[in-house]
Design brief:
OB fold (Dihydrolipoamide Acetyltransferase, E2P); 3 domains; 6-stranded antiparallel β-sheet; 16 strands; 8% helix
C-alpha cells in the first residue's frame, strides 16, 4: 500500500497525489512555455536536448525569472519533472509608460494594470499607444506581453526618398512614430506607413495609409 508523506492526513494525502499528477516532464517544455522553479514562475527562452555517449540525456534551458526579470541557465536530467504554471491570456490596450513601468487597460472593464519594463521584455520597444496586446497572467500577476507578429507604424523621421527609386537593397535609418529606429529601403519617405516584424525589428513592406 502506498503511504502518504509523514504528517499528511487522508485529505492532505489526496491533495498531495493531485499535485503529483500535474507535474510534467522537462522534455515536454518548449520555447515560450512556463513552469515553476523554486516557487517562482519562469519562461523558457531556449530549450536544448543533449546526450553524450551512453549517459543520461540533459535538458538545458535558458529561462527568464518572471519575478526578478533575471535570465538564467538551468540544466535538468531528462527524467526530471517540474510544476507547470496555469497562465491566462487577456487582451489589453496599451496606454502609456513612465520611467519604470508600462500601463495597460482592459477595454471591457476599464481596469488598469502596470507592468514593469523587466517583465515586458524586449517586445516592449514595439508598443505604441492604443495598440492591443495579449498579457499573460499567473493569478493576478502579469507575466509577459505578447504582440502580433507584425505591426504597422508611421515613419516619423527619414531622409527624403529618391523619386523613381524603388530599390529594396539600399537601406537608410528611419524613426518610427514610437521613437524606435529601424532600417528601411531608400524609397520610404517620412509620413508613410510600414509593416515591421516585432520578432526581429526588421522592415517587411510598405503599408497603406490609414485613410486609404
Amino acid at each position: 500500500m502506498e503511504l502518504a508523506p509523514c504528517g499528511f492526513n487522508s485529505r492532505s494525502r489526496h491533495n498531495f497525489q493531485l499535485v503529483l499528477l500535474i507535474m510534467i516532464s522537462v522534455t515536454e517544455l518548449k520555447n515560450g512555455t512556463y513552469f515553476l522553479l523554486e516557487g517562482k514562475p519562469c519562461l523558457v527562452l531556449k530549450y536544448e536536448h543533449s546526450k553524450i555517449g551512453r549517459g543520461s540525456a540533459n535538458i538545458k534551458l535558458r529561462l527568464r525569472n518572471l519575478v526578478t526579470g533575471a535570465v538564467i541557465d538551468k540544466t535538468f536530467i531528462s527524467g526530471a519533472k517540474v510544476e507547470p504554471v496555469v497562465v491566462l491570456r487577456q487582451k489589453m490596450q496599451y496606454l502609456y509608460a513612465d520611467e519604470a513601468v508600462f500601463y495597460f487597460m482592459d477595454s471591457s472593464s476599464f481596469e488598469q494594470i502596470s507592468i514593469s519594463k523587466e517583465t515586458a521584455g524586449d517586445q516592449a520597444k514595439f508598443l505604441k499607444e492604443g495598440e492591443e496586446v495579449h498579457v499573460s497572467f499567473w493569478g493576478k500577476k502579469p507575466l509577459s506581453i505578447e504582440l502580433p507578429a507584425s505591426l504597422i507604424f508611421r515613419i516619423k523621421e527619414a531622409e527624403p526618398g529618391v523619386k523613381g527609386d524603388s530599390a529594396t537593397n539600399v537601406w537608410k535609418e528611419a524613426v518610427l512614430e514610437n521613437g524606435l529606429k529601424i532600417k528601411v529601403p531608400l524609397f520610404i519617405k517620412q509620413g508613410e506607413m510600414v509593416k515591421v516584424d516585432t520578432r526581429t525589428g526588421e522592415y517587411l513592406e510598405r503599408a497603406k495609409l490609414e485613410k486609404d
